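Subgroup meeting minutes
Present: P.N., E.W., G.H.
Scribe: E.W.

1. P.N. recapped why we're keeping a running log of single-chain structure predictions: easier to compare across weeks, and new members can see raw inputs and outputs side by side.
2. G.H. added today's entry (216 aa).
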Amino acid sequence: MSTKAPNLHVSEWVQGLPTNIDKNIGKVVLIEVFQVNCPGCFMYALPNAIEIYKNNSRDDVVVLGLATAFEDYDKNTLDNLKLLLTSGKVIGETFNALSQYRQLVDGDKLNYKIPFPVAMDVLRKNTQDFNDNNVIDFIESNINDYNSYSEQDKKVLFERVKQYLKNKKYSALTFDEYKLQGTPSAILVDKKGNLRNVFFGANSNLHGLVKQLVNE
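Output recorded in log:
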């Protein structure tokens, strides 16, 4: 049974006209989810998404970028996203990695432009204290085979998740609703608005999957 893809939670459209999944029924929608402080996003995933954008008709495929933050909240900010999109300037680990691999121009700028609309995820400050039940709930909703773990592995995982939640100052609404594992991630929606795939990491097979959905 197909599941309707939830609309993106957007705090601001920084580039391009405001839109969303439900506004693009009849087209294949690819959402590239990234963080400003994510070298792999800029070295692999975003160039891949740009290639898909350039190789497909706007009538067939819509490509959207969504900047999010599940860590490094001081760097993965709306201001740094605006800096990136208006001037091409990169920061933090993205700057370090692209500089090392000589993929910057003018010292601190991307050697390409992101041509499609880009929005910022909605970040909500976590103000409530959490308890052990919250940790278990998080684990069970995100790790399908948790009950098959050994008791020792359960304890290790519990402590890791507890530490993660303790340090999680904000909740990124789209990131959480789609249960993304990190960045880069890609969300693929078919012409009927159904969620078809969610990928973590740069996926070289994305071009073929997009074409497949276009031809359905």
